[in-house]
Design goal:
By secondary structure, the chain is an alpha/beta fold. The chain contains 20 helices and 36 strands. Strands 29-30-31-32-33-34-36-35 form an 8-stranded mixed β-sheet, sandwiched between helices. A 7-stranded parallel β-sheet has the order 4-3-2-1-5-7-10, with helices on both faces.
């Protein structure tokens, strides 16, 4: 292809025109420089774009007479320009930006884009950045291209015919690489581990860029038949495709294909998408359409935030009055995942900022901050302290869930602030303490037959599901557990049973995801008796889950923790006719002794026994 359509900028645009420039790693730097070099007589050209990864020549102050910048999404250089007042930020959902062009709300005089060389039929590819570039090409009055021989030819809705291009230059441009170093960041690792627990086999994923998405992918290596429907394709997702974790076989929309709108990563990634028929690039109005996202069953959307308040409101584009990034596709994918059958919209963020001095879980939004995602949209919020489940929760329940995943140093103040609004009564103790013996992640997956359960500490936020657990019991179960038939589990009583000082006593539960709901299936407790350095143990298991080994799993975990805490012994009182529970204790080296009444027996475990130490620790 020869330069048969040379660029005459004065014929294409005039002073005061609005132009679009290509996105992410496909910024046509050569074309922009060509415009700058030939801009005599041109002024006040509005440059509109989303995230750009470039040298940002057009952003420099020396070009303020020529260019006026208006961005949908900010990186560091553009963020600085916005903060200093010589660039503008326009908030918009990524899925709706194309209609701004189509409806001429933001009329485009020209679109400056980067494409691959044309094939034998005259079709160039938009390559690694289709996103809103596709709509800019469709609705701009003129299209000017930088033909880059190094641009990959991607499949999908990524093609433009040379007849649609009004002028071009041919110039090689190496695509910028963006690869996060494999840093040892324990906070991101914990968050990634927790998020991975919410991802079921057969789920379809949307992931962004940053340390947390990278950490999430590291914990998905044992998952099966995952799919991709995401704005961005990264190196980490490419590795999951190559390892066979991502197959797209179970997708219910675009089955068999990884669907994205742009990719950012290494040269290896750019080579991977070049001509790859299994990865298709579609415009943002397709990829980010909540209705189309929702056509993927088990859609899991994982996005980050700057801060989240105790009601679940998400601030993602600003730090107070300072605009930081943009709305992007967060709301599109949160809503799409929420509408998906079995979908999970997730917000994942560290619990603190500024080296632990500032909580990112806040009682109220920082002045000047803007809510990107509403409190009604988010189902899960994840920090390094666990998972808060918000869907269908009252303000009180939300506050307790959010406080439980805040950094411990800020929990007292968060509770104090929220009580000003009477959402949480005085009797509700909210001092969740970690079970450090669990390790860095206070969740353990248990697979029984084909069902996955999770073993974790009981939290103060579990008050309501503990009530539901209690009222699910039969009279026989209540008699076996309490030796009488209690009639009521009030909120106040449930609150006292969930507010456990886990440094001293212990309360563990086995939970199961029942659709979007979490359900307690079993609870095990021990009460520490300091004078004797021992603990009294008690269990209760939901009737339909009995006989599956949940009590045995709980007991083994409690014994491990008691050993690490150097307790001398553990004991339990069990009704004499409760043969199933007696068997669980005896299997774990508890010795049966007469109880205080003929109706019960006492079972005692000597924790100093070598047999106990070897068997339990090895397990």
């Amino acid at each position: 292809m020869t330069n048969s359509k040379p660029v005459n900028w004065h014929q294409l645009i005039k002073s005061g025109s609005r132009i679009f420039i290509g996105s992410t790693v496909a910024v046509p730097n050569g074309l922009i420089q060509n415009l700058i070099d030939n801009s005599q007589g041109l002024n006040d050209i509005e440059v509109i774009h989303m995230l750009t990864m470039s040298d940002h020549e057009w952003v420099k102050k020396k070009h303020t007479d020529l260019f006026k910048i208006n961005t949908f999404f900010m990186g560091p250089e553009v963020r600085k320009a916005v903060a200093e007042g010589y660039a503008d930020y326009t908030p918009a959902y990524l899925s709706e930006i194309p209609t701004l062009f189509k409806d001429k709300i933001l009329f485009l005089d020209a679109a400056l884009i980067m494409v691959s060389p044309p094939d034998e039929y005259g079709y160039c590819s938009l390559g690694v950045s289709v996103d809103i570039v596709s709509s800019a090409v469709r609705y701009a009055d003129k299209v000017v291209a930088q033909i880059n021989p190094l641009m990959p030819r991607t499949n999908g809705h990524s093609f433009i015919h040379v007849d649609e291009i009004d002028a071009w230059i041919t110039e090689e441009q190496v695509l910028p690489e963006f690869v996060l170093q494999n840093e040892n960041d324990p906070v991101s690792e914990k968050i990634g581990h927790y998020v991975s627990m919410l991802v079921e086999d057969g789920s379809t994923l949307q992931l962004g860029i940053g340390k947390i998405p990278v950490a999430v992918t590291r914990y998905l290596n044992n998952h099966k038949d995952l799919g991709i429907h995401s704005e961005m394709l990264s190196d980490e997702l490419m590795h999951l495709i190559n390892s066979g974790v991502i197959t797209n076989r179970k997708k219910t929309f675009h089955r068999g294909k990884s669907i994205v709108s742009f990719c950012i990563g290494s040269q290896q990634l750019y080579d991977f998408v070049d001509g790859n028929p299994h990865v298709e690039f579609f415009p943002s109005e397709h990829v980010n359409s909540p209705l189309k996202i929702a056509r993927n069953d088990k859609m899991v959307s994982i996005n980050s935030a700057i801060e989240v308040d105790l009601t679940g409101q998400v601030v993602a584009d600003s730090i107070g009055y300072n605009f930081y990034s943009g709305i992007g596709g967060q709301v599109d994918f949160i809503r799409g995942a929420a509408m998906s059958k079995g979908g999970k919209p997730i917000i994942a963020l560290p619990s603190t900022a500024k080296n632990g001095t500032l909580s990112r879980i806040v009682p109220y939004i920082t002045e000047g901050g803007g809510v990107v995602t509403s409190r009604g949209d988010v189902h899960y919020v994840v920090t390094e302290y666990g998972i808060a489940s918000l869907r269908g929760k009252s303000m009180r329940e939300r506050a307790l869930e959010m406080i439980s995943i805040a950094h411990p140093a800020f929990r007292d103040n968060l509770l104090k602030e929220v009580r000003k609004h009477f959402w949480v009564p005085d009797y509700q103790k909210q001092k969740p303490t970690p079970v450090t013996e669990f390790g860095p992640i206070e969740w353990k997956a248990i697979k029984v037959a084909s069902t996955v359960y999770y073993l974790r500490p009981l939290h103060p936020a579990d008050e309501r599901i503990l009530q539901e657990f209690f009222y699910s019991h039969t009279k026989e179960t209540l008699l076996m557990r309490y030796s009488h038939n209690p009639k009521q589990m009030s909120r106040q009583k449930a609150s006292s049973l969930t507010a456990v000082d886990q440094n001293k006593d212990l309360a563990l539960c086995v939970v199961k995801q029942n659709g979007p709901r979490e359900e307690i299936e079993a609870i095990g407790r021990y009460y520490f008796i300091e004078q004797e350095n021992c603990a009294e143990v008690a269990f209760v298991v939901r009737e339909i889950e009995q006989g599956k080994g949940l009590a045995n799993t709980l007991l083994k975990e409690m014994i491990k923790i008691a050993l690490k805490r150097d307790l001398s012994s553990m004991y339990a009182y069990v009704r004499a006719e409760n043969k199933a529970m007696r068997k669980v204790f005896e299997k774990n080296y508890f010795v049966c002794k007469p109880g205080e009444s003929p109706q019960e027996v006492m079972l005692e475990l000597d924790l100093k026994s070598n047999a106990v130490n070897q068997d339990i620790i090895s397990a």
